[in-house]
Design a protein that fits this description.
Layout: H1 3-20, H2 24-31, H3 46-53, H4 55-80, H5 89-105, H6 118-125, H7 130-147, H8 150-170, H9 178-194, H10 196-204
Helix pairs in contact: 1-4, 1-5, 3-4, 4-5, 4-6, 5-6, 5-9, 7-8, 8-9
Length: 213
């Protein structure tokens, strides 16, 4: 592989990282005159924004975090992939997805201390693996409806994500390649690892539980 394709892949990952690192939760908190990192769980993601500021701010935060994952991947697939050799084309979107999620979790603008990456992962993976993400979303919805724990729903849905892609591949329903399956597996492990404090609170019975409306 020549240096030009490597440069294209590096630019896809870097651009996605810088976009993914934009801390929309923190910016929305500033609009309300507070630092979201010092409120609630201290997380900059949509769940904590919803808990602290309400749904009117939490929903836009989710949408912005989702888009900062989705748009760089679409751009990489549209402009980056056609400039690459066919065997490497899939890596443009895969590396852009990884970069966007890494940006949210380790944002350079905030000293590499960011969110847990669920919303951004959902947006980044939708163009790469639509059906596994759809299954992941369905699992998240069912677990949250039954438990009212966002963290538990996110952990279980993340674990299901690579298994869904692998099952679809083995069943012959969708030809997901190993770059996509490897990405899904790595991001699932990363999301679960980022929920280590939530796992402790779940085991201790002290995790925040959204009440039924």
């Amino acid at each position: 592989m020549t240096s030009a394709p490597l440069l294209i892949l590096a630019l896809c990952a870097l651009a996605a990282y810088l976009i993914g690192a934009i801390p929309f939760g923190l910016l929305l908190g500033w609009l309300r005159g507070l630092d979201i990192r010092k409120q609630g769980s201290g997380n900059i993601g949509a769940t904590n924004v919803t808990r602290v500021l309400g749904k009117a701010w939490g929903y836009p935060c989710f949408a912005l975090d989702f888009l900062k994952g989705c748009l760089p991947v679409l751009a990489a697939a549209h402009w980056g992939a056609p400039a690459l050799p066919a065997a490497w084309a899939a890596w443009a979107a895969v590396l852009a997805a990884a970069g966007a999620v890494a940006g949210h979790i380790w944002p350079v603008y905030l000293g590499f201390k960011g969110g847990k990456g669920v919303s951004t992962t959902l947006g980044a993976l939708l163009p790469v693996a639509f059906w596994p993400v759809l299954i992941m979303g369905a699992v998240w919805g069912v677990v949250f409806f039954l438990s009212r724990y966002v963290s538990l729903a996110s952990i279980i849905a993340a674990a299901v994500l690579p298994l869904a892609a692998l099952g679809l591949r083995m069943g012959g329903w969708r030809p997901y390649g190993w770059p996509e399956i490897g990405l899904l597996g790595a991001l699932a492990v990363l999301i679960i690892a980022k929920h280590h404090s939530n796992i402790r609170r779940l085991l201790n019975g002290t995790e925040h539980r959204f009440g039924r409306s």
